[in-house]
């Protein structure tokens, strides 16, 4: 059994979802259903550890803690050719602040609370307890790897792991883009001329608040939960013209807080409208 496979099994036993990486720090080829990104990076709304394909495919979503999958004949050639082990930080309840160079490391030491650190080729990984949405280049030389992302495993590191601080979460907060969101989420009014048949704004406000809570409370299958929630909101309020850009932005913000990208939100909204014939 190879050292990489032993490392992967050790991580999986600690409930850290793993996958093999080939040279260049990239996953192995996609499965037929996901080849050339035909799934849009969201294979049938699958989440980490639930891929039905036995191969190491579509990056972070293939990461698993199941030793039967990790040691399966389908994965054996991947481990023989692998250059490294990767893991899905979000699936383990973690966030990795990837510091690419000495300047980024110096910034982190002056700005962020101390936590477990792992040396990398050019910098360090700072690992915190807690999850957030992943993002690249949040500042010069700094990437965030948590939900819907993978990080190379480079050893256990040193220091005591601490809770994810607001200072890290703030790195991914950007100014909203009202024009883009409004265009992506525009809802046509019906023949009612924008007159809401619900007669009261309280009904709408309660519905939006419940939708936000449903998305925020999703412990798994976030993609599917976002889609079903958008579908429910549109089926109730999408044809009467009472939805505004503010309501839609609130729903998108709730989804993005769970790790969804603006593209995923836009796709889910468009798919829900299509399903309803809107």
Task: Write out key terms for the chains shown.
single chain, 14% strand, 4-stranded antiparallel beta sheet, 5-stranded antiparallel beta sheet, alpha+beta, 9 strands, 278 residues, 10 helices
Q: What would your notes on this structure say?
A:
The chain is an alpha+beta fold. 36% of the residues lie in helices and 14% in strands. It is built from 10 helices and 9 strands. The chain has helices spanning 3-13, 67-70, 76-81, 102-111, 166-169, 178-184, 201-216, 222-237, 245-257, 262-275; strands spanning 18-22, 26-27, 84-87, 94-99, 116-119, 124-129, 135-139, 142-145, 151-152. The strands form 2 sheets. A 5-stranded antiparallel beta sheet has the order 5-6-4-8-7. The longest helix is centred in the last third of the chain and has 16 residues, at 201-216. The N and C termini lie far apart (55 Å).
Summarize the structure.
The protein has helices at residues 3-13, 67-70, 76-81, 102-111, 166-169, 178-184, 201-216, 222-237, 245-257, 262-275, and strands spanning 18-22, 26-27, 84-87, 94-99, 116-119, 124-129, 135-139, 142-145, 151-152. By secondary structure, it is of the alpha+beta class.
């Amino acid at each position: 059994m190879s050292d990489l496979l032993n490392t992967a099994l050790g991580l999986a036993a600690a409930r850290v979802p793993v996958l093999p990486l080939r040279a260049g720090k990239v996953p192995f080829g996609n499965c037929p259903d996901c080849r050339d990104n035909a799934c849009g990076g969201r294979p049938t709304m699958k989440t980490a550890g639930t891929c039905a394909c036995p191969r190491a495919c579509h990056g972070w979503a293939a990461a698993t803690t199941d030793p039967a999958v990790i040691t399966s004949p389908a994965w054996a050639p991947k481990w023989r050719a692998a250059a490294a082990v990767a893991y899905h930080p979000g699936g383990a309840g973690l966030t990795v602040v990837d510091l690419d160079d000495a300047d980024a490391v110096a910034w982190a030491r002056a700005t962020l609370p101390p936590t477990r650190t792992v040396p990398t080729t050019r910098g360090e990984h700072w690992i915190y307890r807690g999850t957030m949405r992943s993002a690249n280049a949040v500042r010069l030389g700094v990437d965030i790897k948590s939900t819907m992302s993978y990080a190379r495993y480079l050893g256990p590191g040193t220091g005591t792991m601490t809770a994810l601080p607001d200072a890290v979460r703030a790195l991914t907060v950007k100014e909203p883009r009202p024009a883009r969101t409004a265009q992506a989420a525009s809802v046509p009014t019906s023949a009612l001329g924008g007159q809401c048949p619900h007669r009261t704004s309280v009904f709408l406000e309660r519905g939006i608040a419940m939708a936000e809570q449903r998305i925020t409370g999703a412990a798994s299958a976030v993609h599917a939960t976002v889609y079903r929630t958008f579908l429910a909101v549109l089926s109730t309020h999408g044809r009467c013209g009472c939805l505004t850009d503010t309501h839609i932005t609130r729903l998108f913000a709730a989804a993005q807080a769970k790790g969804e990208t603006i593209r995923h939100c836009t796709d889910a909204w468009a798919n829900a409208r299509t399903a309803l014939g809107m």
